[in-house]
Structure formats: C-alpha cells, structure tokens
User: What shape does this take?
Amino acid sequence: MPLTGKNYIQGETSALGAETFYSVDPRSNTAGDIAFTSATEAEVALAVAGACAAFQQMRHYAPSRIADLLEEIATQIEALGDALLHTADSETGLGLPRLTGERARATGQFRAFAALLRDGAYLRAIINTEAPGQPSLRQMQFPLGPVAVFAASNFPFAFSVAGGDTASALAAGCPVVVKAHPGHPATSELFAQALGKAVAAQGFPAGAFSLLQGKGIDVGGWLVAQDGIEAVGFTGSLRGGRALYDAAARRPRPIPVYAEMGSVNPVVITQAALAERGQDIAAGLVASVTMGSGQFCTNPGLILLEDSAASQDFIAAVTEKMGAAAAGVLLNEAIARGLHAAVRQTAAHEDISLLTGGSEVPDSAAFRFSNTVMQTTAAAIRADDRLQTEHFGPVTLFVLCDDAADLRAAVAALEGNLTATLHAEAAELETISDLLHQLREKAGRVIWNGFPTGVAVVAAMQHGGPYPATTAPATTSVGSNAIYRFLRPIAFQNVPDALLPAALQDANPLGITRQVDGQYRAGAV
Amino acid sequence: MPLTGKNYIQGETSALGAETFYSVDPRSNTAGDIAFTSATEAEVALAVAGACAAFQQMRHYAPSRIADLLEEIATQIEALGDALLHTADSETGLGLPRLTGERARATGQFRAFAALLRDGAYLRAIINTEAPGQPSLRQMQFPLGPVAVFAASNFPFAFSVAGGDTASALAAGCPVVVKAHPGHPATSELFAQALGKAVAAQGFPAGAFSLLQGKGIDVGGWLVAQDGIEAVGFTGSLRGGRALYDAAARRPRPIPVYAEMGSVNPVVITQAALAERGQDIAAGLVASVTMGSGQFCTNPGLILLEDSAASQDFIAAVTEKMGAAAAGVLLNEAIARGLHAAVRQTAAHEDISLLTGGSEVPDSAAFRFSNTVMQTTAAAIRADDRLQTEHFGPVTLFVLCDDAADLRAAVAALEGNLTATLHAEAAELETISDLLHQLREKAGRVIWNGFPTGVAVVAAMQHGGPYPATTAPATTSVGSNAIYRFLRPIAFQNVPDALLPAALQDANPLGITRQVDGQYRAGAV
Assistant: This one.
C-alpha cells in the first residue's frame, strides 16, 4: 500500500488537520516528499472512542484469540518486507544490519506474548476454595481498557508503533492508540498498515488499533486528557515523560503513566578489575557508549573508579579510543540540538574536564556529534545533581573517587537508573558484596562484568528502575512482565462455575498453572 | 506502660509541639484526660530519617528474620490484653464483640504475612539460565524503602497503626512511619508500644517503626513531602486520599500512593431473585447497611433494580426495617457532621425521594444518625455523578430502572467501586452472564448472592478497584498480594552465585517455588 501521510483511525485513514510535517533523512538533512498531517483534537477523540467501543468487544475475548492477533501482527510486519527496513533507515540513519536485528526483536516480542497467553500462567489465577466462615474467592488479571502508547525515536521498531508497549498492551487485551514519533512518520504508517491488516484479518473491532501522527506536543496532550484512556506507555526523555505523568495525575480520574525516561547507567570498576582486564573493559566500554551513536536508554554514561595511576591510564585509553572512533549519525535534529546543549552545559561546569569531543562534527550534512569523554570527582557528583543529567548520545563521564569510601559515598548519592554495572574480580567477592547490593538500590538491573546496552527479552528481565529512570519502578517495559502494566486483578466471590472465566472454573479447561489454596498446580480444583 | 500522649519516634517518646488534642467518647461526647501532642515538622523529619537509617540495615535481612518480627508484633498486640479493647471501645464506640474479632483479624494479618515470607514464593523469583546469545538473568522482589501509613478511623485495629498497610509494608521489608488517626490516639499509642517492644525484642533498628500523632492535616502533608518516603498507604475519604495522591505526584521525585477511598458498592437484584428470596435479601441488606453503623468501605450504598410491584414492595420492606432498627453510634464528630452534610445535599436533589431517616438522632449525647433510605431513578444516576457520592454511615439509595436496558445503562454509568454485587437465580445464568461481567469492569470484587461487607483475608481477595475507589486499581490493601505495593523487581545479570540473594542462588537454599526457564518449581537450578 502506498503511504498516505494520514492518521489511521479505526481502520480508516484520516487527515482533518492543517499542520503537516516531513520525514528528514539524518544523513543528509533532506526532507522526504510525503506531507504527514498532525491529528486534530477531534481525530484524537475519534480514535479513543473507537478504542472504547473495541474494548466492549475485546473484554469478552479469550487469551488464545488475542494470541492469534499477536501472531498475525508479527506475520504482517514481516510482510512489509525490505520496504520497512529502507524506509526506517532513511528516517533514522540506524543502518540495515541494526534494523534487521531490531525487526526480529519486534516480531519476536509479539510471538513471545502470544506464547505467554497460550501458556496462561500469566493470568495469575488464584483460587481460595470455600471453607468454614470463608466464601469461595477466585481472582485473575483483566485488561485495564484503552491504552495510549507514545512511540520512541531511538528504536523505530522495538519501542515504537509496533514496539513493546503496543505488544504488551494488546496482549493484555487492551485496545491501543499510538501517538507516532515525528522522527519516523513513514515507518510509523507502514506499521499502522500492518497492524490494521492484522486487526481486520483476525476479525477484531477496527478500534483495537489507531495511529495518530503529530509534529508537536498537542496530540499527546489531547490523548492523555481523554477520559476513555486507562493507562499510558511512554519511552523518551525525562521532560516528556514527566509532563505526561503530571497531565495524567491532574485528570479528574487519574491514570497510571508508565514512562521509561532518562538514565546514566553507572558503571563501577574496581582496581583489581582494571589490573586484570583493563584493556578489555576499555574496548567494551567504548563499544557500549558508541553503539547506536549512544542513543540507548541503557548507555553507560557515568563511570566510577578510585583514583590511581591505573585509573588514569584507563581513562586515557578510553579517551583515545573514543576520539579515534567515527562519529555516528544521530536520529534527528532535535536530538542533535538537545545533545549539544546538554554537553555544553555540563562541560561548562567548574568541576568538569572535557577530555575529548564536546562538539558537533563540522562540515557534515548529517546530524553528528563527536564522541565525548568528560571527567569529574565524586565530591562534585554529590554536590550537584545536574552532573547526573543524561546525555543522549555517544558521551560518558568519568567520576574519580579519592578512595573506596569516597566511591561508596558517590554511589549513595546516585539517582534512580535503569541499570548499574560492577566490574570486579572473583577474588573480591567477599569485599564487593555490599557495594553490589548498594548499587541494587539505585537500579532495576545489576550487571556483573558486562555492559548495560543489550536488553534480553526474557521473563527475568527488569527494564525499569527508580525515578527518574521511570515513573513506575515496580514495572518493566521489556520482557513478559511488561503485560502487568495493563492488567488489574478482579476477584469473584461465590460466583457459579458457569459464570466464571474459563481460567477460574473448577475443571481448569485451559489447563493453566493456578495457585489453589496456596499451591501452584495445573489440574482441576 | 502508661499512656504518655506523645509521639513514638525511633523507639523514644517525643512531644516537641504545642498543639494538643483529646480522645472523645462517641457515646457521650466527653473528652478523655490525656492530652495528645501533634508532631512537629522536625519530629516528622526525625521519624523519616530513622526509617531511612533502619532501611540500610533491613535491606540485608532475610525474609525469615522479618517473619520473626511480624510474629512478635502479633504476640505483643495480644499482650496488650483487655486494655486495648476497652481503650478502643471508649474511643470508637464499636463495642467489645466487634473489637475482639477485629483484634484477631489484625494479629492474623501479621501471622499470615509471616507465613507468606517463610513460604517464599511471594518473592516471585524468576530465573532465565544462560543460553546462546542470552545472559543469565535472575530477578526477585525487593522492598521499596520507608513507607508512610495513614491510619483509618473505622477499623482501629485492622486498618490503623497495626493494620494491613503496616503489616504488608513491614512484611515487604520496609520501615514504617504511621500517621495516627486523631479519632483514636490512645489506641494508637498502645499499638506503638506493642510495635516498639517487638522491634526491640527482635533486634531491629529502632527506626523500623515510628508513630506520629496529629490533629489536623499538617503532619500528613509534611510526611508525604519527605524525600525519604518511598510509598504511601492510606485508607479514608476520597478527599483525603486525593490530596495525598496530588501531593505525592507534585514531589520532585514522585512516589506511589495506594489510597483506598470512597465506594458505593452497587448491588443489582433481579426480579427472579426478588420473587424467590425477597425477604431474605431485604434482611441481609439491612444487616449489611447498618453493620458497624454503616461505616464500612464496602457498605452497599446503591441498590439497582427494575421497577415493578415486587420492587416497590421490597423497597418498602427495607425502608421499614431500616426505620425500625436502632441507630448505631458513629465513630466521631467529624464523621457525624460529614454524613449529615452529605445526606442533606443528596436528599435535597430534585430527583431524590427520602424514604426514611435523613437526620441526626435528637436528644442523644452520642454521635448518631438515623438509618436512612433514599430512592432515585436510573436516568438521574446517569445525569448526575454527584448521586454516586458515598454516604459514610447507615445509608442506602435505591435506583429504580425502567427495564433491563435502563438498568444496563445505569451500570454502564457507574464509577469505580471496591465491590459490585449481583443477586440472581440459577435459572438466569445464561441471560445474566453479560451483566455480571459488565459489573466486573466497575469493581475489584464481584459478589454473587451475598453482601459486600465482610472482606476475607486470603490470597484471592482483591480489595481495590478503579478510581475513585482507589488510586491504584492494580493493587489490593487486603490479602497477601497487598505486599506487592511495597516491593519492586530487581534483575541480576551474570552475577556470581555467591553474590546473589539466597532466593536466586542455584542451590535454592530457601527451598522456595521459583519460575525457572518458564516452569514453576522448587528444586535447584
């Protein structure tokens, strides 16, 4: 299907608005030739009304029926073929190898959630059978209702229109209204076509999925204010996520906002690790900081180590490698400008030394920023929270600590993060344990002798963390538990078997694992 | 120990403030002779600092050690003996039989959480073993940190200083700072003594529990604003809960507020049920509405039924029984005044008929309000949300619907509730299913042929619901899942076995049920 530049609302294209915008190729700073039309407030309302109507149907659907839809979506995404890869590449500059891998991840997420639904244990069915003085009580998880998803720019497949938020919300049984990221509107429309086809092919109500284009922040504001929206998924900046959180909290009827926002992802390296693997760690660190031009929410942006000759050699080695590495293409002009402003502000701080980089790459039509290394002290980090600001690009900041106590004090002063990493040696296990568990308090995921970029899509993944990493530290936006953001438990008291959902009936017709009077088991009651 | 009228902060009594207040016996409207001193902002800060310090110790504690504390607390509450019952009775007028039962419920909650901790499955340990291209990832639940608990007035044992919020937060491993309810300060101090003894006896840091007295809203405001507080548990009015929610959302670092607030707990009765069991339902309904003088968050305050001669007879019978039943004592002057104002406003609505009651009981020193029945139409409920206002007392509102469609439309217009109840007959199962599941969307718990008062403390209980019933519909404040309000998952990537918490180690030394590569099992990896 050709691209239209229009919104996709309840299975129809729509472009009632006057504001238009264009794709921009970040390698050449040239605009595409399709005008995309920002949605109007009336179109936003129409999409949400469609989602509400769809939910009245979908709330009757069995998990297996929703699983069929998720698998169909994966198939339809694959059917977009190479056009999807080339379109996304021209809008993001991320390159075909990366995008090919990311597409597999996106389709894999839909199939993984389908498998989760067919397994059924995710429903957390809990049964307390009737006992003297106690009624029969049975609970399981049910969908919240229509969900608003705000697409991210840095993962045009895995965290965008057909990304993890959409996959997990649909898996929960919730209709989805996506606010597309203006950085890749053509890619977004291709996904809307695939999702629309899947919805139609599986006989779901057309309002189960809608896509809203929007250049600025108006569309998102209208969307969150709609009474029919029951929850929000967001991946992006601290500023954007907090604005949505505040808007949702101010509603007459507040709703949860699951915003995955900024993170500097601290890495602590012990002297023993430096002595044993200093060169390997330097190479791994540079690869992690520059991966995807540094545009990962798990980018290691703060490296803490005790001051020593070895540490100074290590910093020099990383600085040299960073300076020598080619500057990658940034996603769009807004990110390039934001990165420049943030680095300029940090570099101007009196306690910061700029070791390499710190500027846009001259004589380049592409949006590029030089690979940047800065250095400060633990005392400075403790004194000024602004030094924990995320720099969204190929930038890292070394924090030299006077001694082990100074390092521990710096860790104590860290804000919330998605990840925290510790590089240490086996001989240090006894002395390092408390530091590792201190880091644990600051993050959603603790990594041993590795790097935080690379987020496995598995049940044990936790992609979340204390504020400002997210607005909801008890939830994850990656892995199967992401579905619980869009579910709530409902209990049934003394309800006849014939009226219970299949998952709670005595005979256990779905054959799922349930907690029955305290025991996990799969059989009948 | 004699009562002091002081706050309990980190194991010491403290009364730095100038504001004092007294217990009031609601049966006689006479004040007690102990002056209770509201906490100052400095005392609030001290309590939170103590909680933060305590958490640095407690985050190392194994679940079994916390279970020891919970069991000790139950023992110490029992050791308060009859003095607790008589003190609470004189402050609440709830009567010794009810309070004796409620004490068993409160101690039972602590012991149930202790059992949950010893079982260990609540940790939701998830293990993904290393695989090609995938690291070892293991996650479990960890405590959030210091929790602020706001005590309720209507359950001085089960939802107050040593109620479900405190029990579940401590069970999670979180230190607790309680803002006592000014309606029963002496009872609150007795519990603080018991908790303090338990904390000391089990060698926990003194900051693990503090109690703050406070007459007005200042203490609570100071408490929620403290940066060290990580979550809030609240049971009370919509106005109070929303104020706390808003204050927490405005913090530089927002935190979750688990507020259990207002609910009218709709009850739908079919014509077949009326024909078959009309008299029994009328008797049960009157007992449920007047139980505890109607001061239950699950009080059935909205009764929907189709208009018919049978319905009118039913309403007449309920009205007669309500008018004939003795008016119970209300908890305190604030509740008596608030109830009077709310009923007066509702009764003055042009679409409301007052059938009985509607006024304070004259010539009574006690705080009493007459048992009240009002009537309106489905059209009126749909037209004006104010008719869904909770009346916290022995009050219920009948909603006459023109026909089945009108009833369904009224149900569609309902706001969120803790519970929804359906009285119907076995012969109606096929036709009633959709109505039951429509009610499900409006509540946290659906009751068949029963009454919503009475909340069993079991795993399958869901005591929560969509706003305005709560600010967090995915959570419960009763039952074992209440612990998840105060936990968050943390994942460990490639962390050596020796550094992992015992619950995640290969050998499974705790012998707990874990999800290992998709399977629930108790053995080693």
In short: Chain A touches chain B through 71 residues (CB under 8 Å). The longest helix of chain A spans residues 96-119. The mean pLDDT of chain A is 96.
